[in-house]
Amino acid sequence: MQEIQTILEKQVTLHKSLSVIVKEKTNFIIKQDVKALTASLQKEQSHIAAISALETKRIEAMEKSGHAARSIEEIAGSFSEYSILIPFQKQLIDIIQDIKYANDLNNQLLTQSLQLIHTELDLLVPSKREDSFNYTKTNNRSFQSNSIFNSKA
């Protein structure tokens, strides 16, 4: 049981650190600091890999103790010595909900930024609708791409 407790302590620490990184990302998105956002994403990925490795170890430790398919609450209900693990579980649930909220906010901010970019591009690129009403003459311009990016440049 000591091994499971140690793993849960490490998971709580890593999740707290991940929560800080996710909240920093919000500020980087608002400031449109792509370089800092990229560095933050790399930190986030390394934390996620470490958390996944710890989760695998926790599952292995639970299997060794003979409680593989049961939750911590179920085990603590049956074996009182496992009740010291419940605060770790509650901390993890709270931190994960915090991370989820911050990720949802980041997702909304990025979606709004992309919508703004699409709107600005629509304003820059001439509309195809103007050409569709011109039936009198055919010109080569209709075969040209409306993209503002020149791939040959």
From TrEMBL:
Q: Which InterPro entries match?
A: FlgN-like, FlgN-like_sf
Give start-end ranges for the coiled-coil region(s). Answer: none
SUPFAM superfamilies (UniProt xref): FlgN-like
Keywords recorded for this protein, A-Z: Bacterial flagellum biogenesis, Cell projection, Cilium, Flagellum
List the GO biological process terms.
bacterial-type flagellum organization
A Pfam family for this UniProt protein? Answer: FlgN
Keyword ATP-binding on this protein?
no
- Superkingdom of origin: Bacteria
Q: Does the keyword DNA repair apply?
A: no
Under what name is this protein listed? Answer: Flagellar protein FlgN
Q: Which organism is it from?
A: Priestia megaterium (Bacillus megaterium)
